[in-house]
Amino acid sequence: MRVIVAEDVMLTREGIVRLLADAGVAVVAGVGDGDALLAAVAIHRPDAVLVDIRMPPTHTDEGLVAAGLIRTAFPGTGVVVLSQYVEPAWALQLIEQNPEGVAYLLKERVMDSAGLLDALRRVIDGETVVDPTIVARLLGRKRRHDPLATLTDREREVLGLVAEGLSNRAIATRLVVTDRTVETHMTAIFGKLGLEETPDVHRRVLAVLTLLRA
Prior knowledge:
This protein folds into 2 domains: about 1-130, Response regulator (Rossmann fold, 3-Layer(aba) Sandwich), CATH 3.40.50.2300; about 135-214, Arc Repressor Mutant, subunit A (Orthogonal Bundle), CATH 1.10.10. About 35% of the residues are buried. β4, α4 (about 90-95) and β5 (about 100-105) form a beta-alpha-beta unit. α2 runs parallel beside α3 (about 60-75) and α7 (about 155-165) crosses α10 (about 205-214). Strands 2-1-3-4-5-6 form a 6-stranded parallel beta sheet, sandwiched between helices. Helix content is about 50%, strand content about 15%. The protein is globular and about 45 Å long. It has 10 helices and 6 strands, in the order βαβαβαβαβαβααααα. The chain is α/β, with parallel strands linked by helices and about 210 residues long.
């Protein structure tokens, strides 16, 4: 696994690089701004990039913009975006641009090396991952017109785990049910949300987008 780390605070960047290196990840570059990230991706062609949303010069959304450009120019490169803030709108923007091979995690997750590595592996495999804290907030939100209203409590729970990037087997293990039971729940979720498989977008991604848009 070859990764580029983009973080403007040098100590934080070096800490992430050390954590990944200790886990056996080849960090091919560490950069401090969006322009440097784009240049490094063009040179090294990494499997994935890890990028903070707020970067120089304005410390607003430069990292998010760079992530979108990378997904367009280098669609085979997985992107893990880190944020200090719970911002579902940013997650939605990122995933809507290019829905596969992206993750939106809270910055505190970098302390969980196993979770961070799992997210990197998932985006490299083309999966979509949303931070569990954001998923929980979205599922608990009260809405006037709730597209998730027809889902049972268990189906909402399963959808939340899908948004976190878990496979059917992982969901079955988490809920202590059979794979077939999870498949049944997924079929019900797709049907109630009116999601149809297309050649370009997987229904699991469409389900995550429905949750983010709600």
